[in-house]
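For reproducibility, we list the full input for the nicotinamide-adenine-dinucleotide complex.
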Amino acid sequence: MPDVPAETTQEQGAWMSNWTSNPLGMPAVVVGGGTMGADVAVVLARGGCHVTVVEPRTERHERLVAHGLAELAAAGVTSASHLACVASLEDVDWADVGLVVECITERLADKQALFARLDKLAPPGAVLTSNSSGIPISRISQGLPGRARMLGLHFFMPAHLVPLVEVVMGEASDPAAARAVFDLMRACGSVPVMVRKDLPGFLANRLQHALAREAFALIDQGVASADDVDAAVRFGFGFRFLAAGPVLQRDHAGLDVHCAAAATIYPSLNNSAEPAQVLQAAVAAGRVGMKAGAGFHDWPEATRATERARYDSLLRAGLALLSPELPRAAGVGASPAPVEIFSSDTATPGPAPAPQP
Ligand SMILES: NC(=O)c1ccc[n+]([C@@H]2O[C@H](COP(=O)([O-])OP(=O)(O)OC[C@H]3O[C@@H](n4cnc5c(N)ncnc54)[C@H](O)[C@@H]3O)[C@@H](O)[C@H]2O)c1
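The corresponding predicted structure, in tokenized form, follows.
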């Protein structure tokens, strides 16, 4: 079973006594209907939530709903009544809202102002979450009376195709709220993980950036080209991630082998606190990726849609391959308890790893 807080004190959990983790018919609000909000709305609607997206740019509304319905149809959900757009928080029917997911621009002051308003507008039983990629919920919720019901809920782009969602607890978050949202996300077909401390980057982005730091440093040093770095990950160890994460994969490979390699390699790994030169130079030159027409590669308009279609179609194929495993990954089915290798009081190693073939 995943590592989730199972207990809460009566006082902590009391305000959530009417909360249900069953998404069917639950009114949910997504604030910000940009890149992420549009897809987060699909995740909630496919679980059965009645989703209202708050997006001030009304010219986006039609496209947003069309995108949502097309993705819901692709996921086999045909009811059209689950997704609507409004222009402001005042247009939302807040009466029975159970969950809010904030997906607005990544600016602390804007998010703080929004959460202060949400704390007043949303009914007391609603859980308020932020999809911020980097700002800890503890900072967004600082000083607000309803901090206990505020959590990080971090999706990955595109949110309706990448199964993972991080449920991130801030310093004041109620474990009962985290548990409830964890169960709700599971019921929406996502794979939630519980992150018990809102460190910068939470869980997955810390891992991603640890890899990216070394990748860009290797390019800086001329050890490998950008394309070769991509190939080494995609067709090498990254390819295996479809079958096993870095911990389980090491059980396959042998922890002794891993330990020995780590001792040799770690001293020379990059540990700079600054982004690599090659990245800083690209950003300074405005080569910030597809949205600017160029990054490490050139992206004239004509090639962007083709690349995006290739990317999405591989993600969909990967998702189809993984789909039999998703319920178990999300903790719905039985899963074996992890083997305890070290006893917590003595840190004495358990049995030696099996000999390598
Ligand atoms: N893009 C990603 O890959 C990604 C991944 C994970 C998390 N995130 C996080 O998700 C959030 C949104 O990112 P995005 O890429 O969707 O940005 P985006 O710019 O595409 O969308 C933001 C949307 O929010 C709307 N908005 C801004 N202020 C608002 C307000 N006060 N009320 C209502 N709507 C408002 C804007 O009109 C815009 O449509 C950010 O916090 C970002 O860090 C992004």
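Residues 31-37, 54-57, 103-106, 110, 114, 131-133, 155, 157 surround nicotinamide-adenine-dinucleotide (CB under 6 Å). The beta strands are 27-31, 50-54, 83-86, 99-102, 127-130, 150-155, 164-168, 191-195. Both points were considered when choosing residues for closer inspection.
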